[in-house]
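pinned: reference chain
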Amino acid sequence: MPDLPPIRSEAAVEFLGELQLTPRGRLCVPCAAARLGLEKWAILKLIRETLLAGDVICLHTDCSRCCRVELVAALRPLPYSRLDEVTPRRAPLGL
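pinned: its structure tokens
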């Protein structure tokens, strides 16, 4: 069976877009709720959806917006992300 890309809700696409526009791509739940105009529980559902799709990771670090140290959703590093197809890097011929 082929590895199909996950189907994301419209709100999840907005959430991922907000993370991409945020410097360092990290948002805590209160900041994400304020940016998207949603309630806390709706943001937690979006984080769960994007986490299960492999788009984000959760870290205990500082938020890019408010700089408070708490649990944040962050974009996964590119080699492990499903947001864009990444072409494998080739080693230089001399090595």
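why pinned: Residues 10-78 form a domain with the Arc Repressor Mutant, subunit A fold (CATH 1.10.10.10). The two ends are 36 Å apart (CA to CA).
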